[in-house]
Amino acid sequence: xxxxxxxxxxxxxxxxxxxxxxxxxxxxxxxxxxxxxxxxxxxxxxxxxxxxxxxxxxxxxxxxxxxxxxxxxxxxxxxxxxxxxxxxxxxxxxxxxxxxxxxxxxxxxxxxxxxxxxxxxxxxxxxxxxxxxxxxxxxxxxxxxxxxxxxxxxxxxxxxxxxxxxxxxxxxxxxxxxxxxxxxxxxxxxxxxxxxxxxxxxxxxxxxxxxxxxxxxxxxxxxxxxxxxxxxxxxxxxxxxxxxxxxxxxxxxxxxxxxxxxxxxxxxxxxxxxxxxxxxxxxxxxxxxxxxxxxxxxxxxxxxxxxxxxxxxxxxxxxxxxxxxxxxxxxxxxx
Length: 335
What we know:
The protein is an alpha+beta fold and 335 residues long.
């Protein structure tokens, strides 16, 4: 608009100046300078408006942290929420977002050429077909967050089978990674001493019995084992990522609930052990550092092809004795 007004001004100047060439040249020069300034401003505005970068630093400097979100495919079935790369200082960073269509599955391919574990492929276990939100836990403990450029290619599959891809790049400076590793080292070296005298007793579940150096059970509850160990804060939303790191066999889980809000969770889990399957209620008390398992059922005849269906079947089955164990683990948390 300024450029048009300047052009109009030039016409008036030319008309009024007649043969005065100096004034004509001066008017032309002012018009040229104004046009260049407007063009520069418009270029900056257009670049800012078209950018898909959620948080941008100097991408050529490894000492800077930054996050970049880029649409790989023309069609998109998800949108990624704003990510703060500074949150990665504790070794945990969540990539969250919303679905824009009926999405059935979401998978993430991690890559980092500088990492000791440069590639990882993972399908979100907590995401179910039709969910409106999703979460991926990028964790240094899970070997999917490291120094350098961490690239996460998120593939969303729609109900029609079509796929969209979004790429999230998170650059972590070496100084942040050193802080992460130091924090993990301190955590691993923390005391794991178990003092059963601090545990509650009751006529319903009996008294604690120490098993080895770091485990215990209770006199009135069979098939219960609780271990003292370093545990991260886990919620039902991040449980899938936790199990991915902890389990070394085929498994499925169901029925996740809080034991006490923000202090511990419980869930049922079926896992394969050779030709057998084990179905147990699992307790994660991250306040006190207790990981407990209570065996519900064992058997044979379940394979990798049928474990998902078996998990669904067992999830609908009642196990009355779990109420006593639930009470015990809640009492431990509140003691």
